[in-house]
Amino acid sequence: MTESRVGTVERIHVASGTGGDPEPREAVEAVADRGLRGDRYFDGDGIYNEQSELEPSDITLIEAETLAAAAAEHGVDLEAGAHRRNVTTRGVDLGELVGERFRVGEATVEGTGRCEPCGYMADLAEESDAVTALDGRGGLDARIVESGTVAVGDEIVW
Predict the structure, then answer these.
(1) Full residue range of the structural domain in which residue 86 is found
(2) DSSP letter string, 19-46
(3) CATH of residue 152
(4) pTM of the predicted protein model
(5) Which GO MF terms are attached to this record (predicted)?
């Protein structure tokens, strides 16, 4: 039997429109195969919805430890949602969750792939070194498999 591992939800952000400022939330409704209620992708307004060759994720996650490393190693400050990811985690190696199902709060999600940094994110964050700072550790794209509420402080169990 595999032992469960546990991390936590440290922050939640949604942006209501393409290029919109990330808004912090204490909790958000995660809707299966749709996204986070109030987020640009839930409403079909995200940059990936507008570019047909790109598939949007229901939810994106990034490690708090990665953000701290980006600041320490490259002087890049991506706090307050500037990284454009929905959920900031602590105590989770997101790279291990590609292809895996896991629980985030009440929702069940499945890691679909790495969420690599892009120039668009760096431009919006006004951090020219952001792509370099997050290269290979930009987070996780995931699909919401079962709906539920995700709140700051919730457990992430895999």
Answers:
(1) 6-157
(2) TPPPEE-SEEEEETTTEETTSTTTTT-S
(3) 2.40.33.20
(4) 0.86
(5) catalytic activity; molybdenum ion binding; pyridoxal phosphate binding
